[in-house]
Amino acid sequence: MSTVDVGTHDRREFIRTTSAKSYRRRAVSSRIFMSLLVLALTIAFVPLASILQNVVGHGIHYLTWGFLTTSQQLPSITNTNGIGGIGNALAGTAVVDLIAIVISIPTAILLAISMFELQGRWVVAVRTAMETFIGLPSIVFGVFTYVSLVLTTHQYHAYFGSLALTFIMVPVMTVNALAALQSVPDTLIEAGLSLGLRPSRVMLHIILPAARARVFTGIFLAFSRAVGETAPILFVIGASTLPNFNPGAQATSLPTLMWSYLTGAYPSQREACWGIALVLMVAVLFFNVLSRVFVARTQQS
Amino acid sequence: MEQVTTENLEPTADAGSAQAGRERKLPTGSDRVYRNTLWTVLTLVGVIVFYFIFVLVKNSLPGWQYAGWKMFTTGTWSFGDNKFSVWPLVLGTVLTTFFALLMAVPVGVGAALAIVYLIPRRLRLAVSSLIELLAVVPSIVYGVWGALVMAGWLGNKGEPWLKSVAHGAWPFNGATSGYGMTLGSIVLAVMIMPIVTAISRDVIVAVPKELTEGALSLGATRGQVIRKVILPSCKTGIVGAVTLATGRALGETIALATVLGGVTQMSPWPDRAFSTGSTLAAEIAIDFGAITGKAGNVLFALSLILMLIVGVVTYFARSIIRRNERQFR
Predict the structure, then answer these.
(1) Cβ of A113 under 8 Å from any chain B Cβ?
(2) Dihedral through CA A60, CA A65, CA A69, CA A72, nearest 10?
């Protein structure tokens, strides 16, 4: 085209028309691409909507005082709908999770502090192990707890489940707490040290308070994950059809009750899964929202 | 009262140098209790990690001996009949993960792009929090949803429709029960999609504004900017996200145990889209209730295989994501 001798005016006209044509083509393909993105976002919401609709729709009429406080019952031939409640599972969940969190929080915070303060191969090795543990299938921890505790004692205890959950929670809490500690400005730490404070005082009075919000974020995040875990506790806590607050006894927790109802013989048991799912989701959401509140607080400060 | 000695002052000099705070050395001599406590905790946790690996290896040894080479030379897994071949489980794991990624990655990345570039800033946090809600739904709830909602829909409508569209050609042939590989892949896709979205979104937000503005000022359309500027510069981060999601998918247990239907002597291989199957992780959960003697050790061996695979994948995912984070700082 450049060989064709055209006047300046024609050349300008040529550029204008071709660029306009090219722009129109590019605008159309851009529009198509952007609508594909909208489509992706819409598709992403479909399963969420379906899950929430079913969990709330089927589960809401289970939310009665009787369902929450009475113990589970096996349906009989005369009363196939009589599945009782989830009082025993709520008690079991409370015991298992409470012990797990009491063990996990101090362990994780101390571990994060030692990774922050100390150096060496050992530190790197443990940190890599913790980061890898976050991604490991939770059933592996269930198998480990079964092998190391149930097989050696030949017994099932609620606190075995707590120990298994510790393996889920500690890595998440530790990695988050370590990131929190590292985000504290060096100048703050140096100021403390230059005043002659011992490192332990600096940690206790300067670093930890400054990192508090993000540490809590990790704690609640870990907890919201652990509450719904089924695989690690399924094989180690046994079962109990009565509410039991003794950690040394066997226990049924919400996820394990759901698992047994889901594989159960009665339709009423499967339907009750929605009720338990709703309770579980509320618990999980509560802790997740808490963690988000702390995230927001960190971003503000 | 603590005495101010040169040892106490040492860290100040150390931290005052050009070194970053992380390189700070604890002073030796002072604060011994603190230091010793920290070393004790670290050592204890390290010992527990080693004990964890040791126990799994030790207990799986009888399993290796019991199942022997048949684990790799035969083709049927049927726990009750003492038939231990890992291949149907490996195939189930690989297939469900692959098809889940095939569905979740385009949707996940597309949703992340839409959140960053199409949603008004005020709504951005709300929309992405809603999608990340999927990440905290317990896996047993996905199992309930898959078994009580999706299985019925797939068995009655979805799978017969696919079958008629494909005129019953492989792999869309045979009986349609709802449970099986198709349902497993869909449930898995829903579970890993939020991971892809959350990490991709963080990576996309971190792309320097100058890059996109430069491209726009050259006359590129928004679609071109996303395809030719943003996606290439986010490649490593998205690969990290996908690898992390792969690790999650490979190890998913309870949800898949409820929706996959299992492998038996009658239907040993997941060879059609609608056939039932099982994965390494799901099979451990399914068979655990029936373990006796040496057969149980085979399951421990399975969990060791699973842990190795997922551990390696996760380790690489973490290092990719960490490298990417450093790149943008």
Answers:
(1) yes
(2) -50
